[in-house]
Amino acid sequence: MLFHVHMTVNIPLDLDKTYVDDLKAKEKALSQDLQRQGKWTHIWRIAGKYANISIFNVASAGELHDILMSLPLYPFMEVEVTALCQHYSSVKNEEEAH
């Protein structure tokens, strides 16, 4: 299943910098591992914000939930999730029909 996920991170300014840097490093390592697995792809950063737009390719909504909950920065995130499906006008669908 494909999901479009928009994540905005709002880290409180009064958090310890070392703690925040550690969370960011763990987040980066986890996201890179998920990318290598093919589960987290198409990551775009939003200019001027600590936010990104991502596509997750997972087996179920439950798996996506588990992944998002495991992200070290999740407690500081605003998350919007949209399920995706392949549109009937996809070139891939037309090629398969012939």
Automatic annotation (TrEMBL):
Muconolactone isomerase domain mapped to chain residues: 1-89
The protein's Enzyme Commission number: 5.3.3.4
Oligomer status and interactors: Homodecamer.
Coiled-coil residue spans: none
Stated family: Belongs to the muconolactone Delta-isomerase family.
Top-level enzyme category: isomerase
Protein known as: Muconolactone Delta-isomerase
Alphabetical keyword list: Aromatic hydrocarbons catabolism, Isomerase
Domain of life where this protein originates: Bacteria
Gene (name only): catC
Pathway field: Aromatic compound metabolism; beta-ketoadipate pathway; 5-oxo-4,5-dihydro-2-furylacetate from catechol: step 3/3
